[in-house]
């Protein structure tokens, strides 16, 4: 089956009510859905913050338009990426590259965190769009910003789609992951931002999960498949450790404040 036929077959399954009936009555399926919701939510909170910074130089009404156009492009790209991905993910070299990229994201996050600790507030403020950049000069302030937001959305989409493939290669998982990713980034990102403000360690946990998913994807190349019980167990341990670390850090901060 070629790429075009694979894409058509993938989205035809979106209307397979029998498949959805099986999915929604299977506890394991809800475990995968819950994993995607948490992962997408935590990652999208950070992504939404980046996009907000990118459009902050525009008037308020143009900010909403720029983000909306980016939203449409993100949906289109994700649906195309999922259709092609279902075909490509059967190749071992694609899994290896995908696992390597996810591992790179996780490692880069922790390296950037260390660098960010040394940055000043002024450096943080200057992380918006460069108004003298080639896109702004070529297409103007508004459309140049729209294209920049679109490119950033596509970058986030690649991360999200690869993470969904790492969780499972079942079509319904990928479709739900694609939909959730964009909805989370635009709709519920504020909720997760507040959650991360209260428990900052959750952001690091999201990238630890990406590293776990990268390992899971790489093991699949060698036909080593982690049973869903063990996979969900690792997630529970990761979140449990997050809350333990959070309360320890909070307690330590309170003790230092009293001293």
Describe the 3D structure.
By secondary structure, the chain is mostly helical. The chain has one domain. The chain has 10 helices and no strands. The protein has helices spanning 3-12, 17-24, 27-54, 60-88, 92-116, 121-125, 134-167, 171-198, 201-221, 228-258. The protein is globular.
Distance between the termini: 69 Å
Secondary-structure element series:
HHHHHHHHHH
Number of strands: 0
Q: Domains counted in the coordinates: how many?
A: 1
User: What is the average of the pLDDT values?
Assistant: 76
Protein name: TerC family protein
Organism: Niallia hominis
Membrane topology: Multi-pass membrane protein
Subcellular location: Membrane
For this entry, give a set of tags.
single chain, 259 residues, mainly alpha, 10 helices, 0% strand
Chart the SSEs and their pairings.
Blueprint: H1 3-12, H2 17-24, H3 27-54, H4 60-88, H5 92-116, H6 121-125, H7 134-167, H8 171-198, H9 201-221, H10 228-258
Helix pairs in contact: 1-4, 3-7, 3-8, 3-9, 4-7, 4-8, 5-7, 5-9, 7-8, 7-9, 9-10
Quick rundown:
The chain has 259 residues and is an all-alpha fold. 85% of the residues lie in helices and 0% in strands.
């Amino acid at each position: 089956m070629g790429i075009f036929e694979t894409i058509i077959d993938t989205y035809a399954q979106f209307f397979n009510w029998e498949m959805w009936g099986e999915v929604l009555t299977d506890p394991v399926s809800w475990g995968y859905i819950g994993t995607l919701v948490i992962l997408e939510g935590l990652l999208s909170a950070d992504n939404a913050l980046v996009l907000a910074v990118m459009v902050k130089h525009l008037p308020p009404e143009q900010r909403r338009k720029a983000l909306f156009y980016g939203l449409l492009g993100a949906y289109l790209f994700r649906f195309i990426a999922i259709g092609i991905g279902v075909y490509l993910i059967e190749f071992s070299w694609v899994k290896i590259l995908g696992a390597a990229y996810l591992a790179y994201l996780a490692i880069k996050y922790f390296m950037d965190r260390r660098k960010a600790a040394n940055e000043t507030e002024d450096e943080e403020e200057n992380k918006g769009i460069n108004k003298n950049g080639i896109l702004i000069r070529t297409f103007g302030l508004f459309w140049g910003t729209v294209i920049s937001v679109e490119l950033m959305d596509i970058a986030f989409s690649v991360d999200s789609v690869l993470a969904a493939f790492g969780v499972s290669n079942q079509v319904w998982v990928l479709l739900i992951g694609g939909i959730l990713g964009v909805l989370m980034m635009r709709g519920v990102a504020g909720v997760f931002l507040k959650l991360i403000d209260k428990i900052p360690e959750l952001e690091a946990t999201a990238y630890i999960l990406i590293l776990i998913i990268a390992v899971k994807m790489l093991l699949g190349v060698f036909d080593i498949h982690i049973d869903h019980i063990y996979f969900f167990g690792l997630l529970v341990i990761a979140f449990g450790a997050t809350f333990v670390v959070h309360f320890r850090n909070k307690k330590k901060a309170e003790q230092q404040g009293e001293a």
